[in-house]
Structure prediction request, 589 residues.
Amino acid sequence: MLAEKALDLIRELQRTLSGTLSPYNEDKIRQVLEEMQNLYDQNRDRAHYAAGQADVFAAIQLRHAAIQRNKRCLLAYLYNRLEQIRKMRWEFGSVLPSDVRYNMCEQEVQWFTQYNRQLANYMKTIGESGGLDLTQDMKPPKTLYVLVRCIMDHGEFETQDGNIILLKKNSQHYLLRSECEHLIRQGILEHLVH
Amino acid sequence: MAAYSVPAGVCTNYFNIDDILASQEKVPCVFNAKVAALGYLDQSTTDVDLNVGTKLELPFWLARFLQKGARNIVTVDTPKTYKEGYRNIFTADPNVVDLHRLGPFFYLFGGKLLTLQLPDAEEIADVLLKTFQGRFRKIMDGSQNALHADLTSQTSVLDDQERHLFAAGQDSLHGFHRWEKRETEKLSTSVMVANHRKRKRIGAMPTAS
Amino acid sequence: MDPAEVEFLAERELVKIVPNFTQDKIYLISGDIGPFSAGLPVSVPLWLAVNLKQRQKCRILPPDWMETEFLKEKKQEEADSRFFTPMPSPHYMELTQLLLQHATDDVPRADEVRTLIKDIWDLRIAKLRSSVDLFVKSEASHAKLNFLTVMEINTVRQFLTKALDHMHQLRGNVSGSSQASHSQFI
Prediction:
């Protein structure tokens, strides 16, 4: 059946949406584009003698529908991947894990870089004193300071008051909530509650 | 982080995955007109053309396109699952039907069928509504009661949209219980990061080919 | 909405405390608080009450309704009524939760209070579910439920709005008005 390959792309999205990003399926996309080109060429060749020939005209319409279906699947594939990448910016932070980046195509990497920059610029313009980090306080804050434990080695960390502490696995620290919330969300620190 | 995603309920979205998949479900068609050079779509024949009277199961998107208005290239029939026989089963006891096996886009595809001017469209619309009304209480109670129970037996018979609904109920339930146990105060690793790490640990990360 | 956000709203409710310190008025964006005189009751937002309590700076006077006799009556009333009865506080659940966590010693018969509140909550949630089911099965296009609290609404919000979306689509199918809402895309 026509437009089957394009549907494979959609099924691929359906399977991977919940967790991570699947590898950009360049090969399949090329095959879909080839099918579209073929259908288009066939239609163009027949268009000039279709007048008065109902069966040829019907075939042209059918192929046209298949081209449009392919187009919808392709665009949905690209769009939903971008949505996923955008969500990742809010979950992982401005630097994505290398295996995620590896699965992005060049344009997606570019898009991510620009989205990152725009978001940063926008956050910088909020308020008067240096902006507002919208990715912080995703839940109503309860306390100014929090007790945390390092889940993994993360090296040195400079606190706002200029002290340098070493984030070593299993070490515990009492830090400003605002400066360590990101590290907690990224799974480097664990928040300890009484 | 639902706030940053396109709402799942909006199925008229051009990019909606469920809408694309639902419109791929098959509809029985009979060709009213000859279609030149596309005989290869019918695997039961070696004819070059698709001839008048050819019977084919076409995906919904193509069936509707070929049927629409003056085009009238095919005549469509109601798919088996939506015919009277099945409709009677749904109305008899909506709760025993495995809509996932019969769907999985039972309501969404059913709604699409209504745009095909089928003679039994009214009955189909009616059975979609009644089936959901009949199953609603079980879905709601199921999603709101079981906290740690294995839910696969409950969700496996649900249609795709019903599953979204069930998941939403579960989400609220878990949120409330976490709050009751005072776990919401604790800042936690974001869901995506945790998933990513889990996958990496079990080595199930799809490798780029 | 996350229950933590509902709790945040509840933390603006005023409760009475008896401070063990003396201090002038504090001027905050959300309003003035104080002045505090040691031993004299004063109303403050819940968040501050909890904070002071944690630092042993005050004793919290639980709201009038947070006592077993009243709650037993309330529970009976709720059980007897087909409809939701008005609750003594729009944030009764969150107030109980926070006060019993941080100021158990200030609430007489705390465990009984906790059980009673939970019972009332369960009664109301069961009622809420039955109403929702009734509504979905009826031909009605709107329903009015009085005296529900934010936290109660919040437990069904996600589910209910999705279910109503779905119902709207299915009802539209029957009346033929949703033809246009089914996507015309290929």
